[in-house]
Amino acid sequence: MIGDGAHIPFIAGSYVGVAVLVVGLLAYVVWDSLRVKRQLAELEKAGIRRRSADAASTRTDTP
Amino acid sequence: MSATAVKQPNWFARLAHPGQFLAWTRFVVWPLAVATAISFAAGLWFAFLNSPEDYQMGDMVRVMYVHVPNAWLSQLVYGVMFAAALGSLVWRHPLADVANKAAAPLGAAFTALALYTGALWGRPTWGTFWEWDGRMTSTLVLLLIYLGIIALRRAYDDQIKAGRIVAIVTLIGGINIPIVKFSVDWWNTLHQGSSILTASGPKMPMSLLLPLLLMLLAFTLLFSLLQVVRMRTEILRRRAESMSRQAALGATR
After folding, report:
1. Cβ-proximal residues to B86 (8 Å cutoff; 6+ apart), any chain
2. In whole angstroms, what is the distance from residue A53 CA to residue B79 CA?
3. ipTM exceeding 0.90?
4. A20 touches chain B (CB under 8 A)
5. Which residue on chain A is closest to B105 by alpha carbon?
6. What is the C-alpha separation between A13 and A57, in angstroms, rounded?
7. Fewest C-beta in 10 Å: which of B6, B66, B223, B250?
8. How many CB pairs under 8 A join A and B?
9. CA-based nearest residue to B237, from A29, A60, A62, A10
10. Is the entire prediction scored with pTM above 0.95?
């Protein structure tokens, strides 16, 4: 059996490495999502609409 | 039957329509996040506080609870990308390319973690961080394939062309997955063979298997959560890009 005391750095290193990358990945995914949502909101605020949205509204407006 | 009757799309086509996908996944994100957090809490509790040492490896066995899920995801994510590449090339499904693009960085991250935790597990148990054997080398090749796919997509301005080329490369790269999976059977290797999915059932006691299964569930839920959020973001990004192009065209007229 491997003596455990000497191997704590390997166990801790594994978990800390995984935690750092997973938290980093989560933070990046959330940041990217918020950034794109903000960009979309700015475009909509500037009065720019999607062609499909325009077409949809035209369809509903027209009897 | 009327001649003008339009064939209704099936339930899958409806769910997979980008607009519909955004609508129904809105209700999936938070439940997935909660389920992921609960699974991690339970898995880590068992991994650290309620599982015994291994009779040979001692406490080093606890590295298994993060190494095996990442190794599993490194292959599962590629499977998702492979299916997406088929969907992209065969059915030209709009969401397929979105799924492929969203999954690639996640697959690269999980593969890097599998290699990292494997190296840390290997040093005390095998006496080396790295060995050029079948399993480790094919997993390193898998990481390089992920990175190549990410770089390839970024090299193109035309996202439709990029999607098609990435899909072809993804299908070709799929050859590596059976090599990763069966490398431990085909070649002599330091890496142990499969110990969960075997013909005679799992080769480990329940006290070690339960934390492992909980951590496998937690990491799989984490991937599902990240994939759904990234796919939603990618759909919105494409929408924003299309609106920006439309605005630029309007300005030049």
Report:
1. B96, B167, B171
2. 35
3. no
4. no
5. A25
6. 56
7. B6
8. 99
9. A29
10. no
